[in-house]
Each structure stands twice: as structure tokens, then as C-alpha cells.
Amino acid sequence: MSGRSGQEWLAGDQTDLGEDSKYRLRAAVHYTVGCLCEEVGVDKGTEFSKQTIAALAETTFRQCENFATDLELFAKHGKRTTVNTDDVKLLARRSKALVKLHFFRSCLS
Questions:
Q1: Does residue 14 carry a pLDDT above 50?
Q2: Which of 69, 67, 82, 62 has the alpha carbon at shortest distance from 1?
Q3: Recorded GO terms, molecular function (predicted)?
Q4: Burial track 80-103 (b if 16+ CB lie within 10 A, e otherwise)
Q5: Distance CA 36, CA 49 (A)
Q6: Average pLDDT for 22-47
Q7: Residue 58, domain extent
Q8: What are phi and psi of 15, to 5 degrees?
Q9: CATH number (domain holding residue 87)
Q10: How many whole angstroms from its chain centre is CA 2?
């Protein structure tokens, strides 16, 4: 990552991630969330409103910004300029949902 925070990197500026790229990234997240909602809706026999899909997409995008910032800070703390797998593992340990999922999966195997 560059010397900017994860949020600055995802939010972008004209030098690294222009407005067009930022728009396309948000649109890709929105599209993917919409596809997932459609798939879950078919499987569960329910529908998601456009507002719900938009809220989920925005929440997902913002969470990715937070992840990017945290990963960059972990790398900086380790006196590195590159994020590595140890940073990702540390990030996963900070997520209660991921810890529960890992525990659940380890109990099944």
C-alpha cells in the first residue's frame, strides 16, 4: 500500500484512484451485493428491497475501508510497508464473527 491510510486509498484522489475508479469500485461492490442478495432471496424465498441492497453495499464498502486502514496500521506497526498474511490473521482475530466461524468450523472437522 502507499503511504496513505486505507480509507484514503479506497476513497481515492486524482493521483491514485480517480473519481471514475472510485465510482466503478462502489458499483462493483453494489452489483456483487445485489447478486448475493438475489441468490439468498431465491434460496430462502424472500426479496430484498433496493434500499436494503444499497445499505448493505455501503456498509460492505465502508467495512472494507476499515479493513484496509487496519491492515496498513498492522504493517506499519511491524515496520513494514507491505501487508502480509500475519496482518490478515491479526485482522481476522479482531473480528468476533470470524473467530466464531473458525471455532464452529474447527468443531465440525
A1: no
A2: 82
A3: chromatin binding; DNA binding; protein heterodimerization activity
A4: eeebeeebeeebeeeeeeeeeeee
A5: 13
A6: 95
A7: 6-108
A8: -85, -40
A9: 1.10.20.10
A10: 18
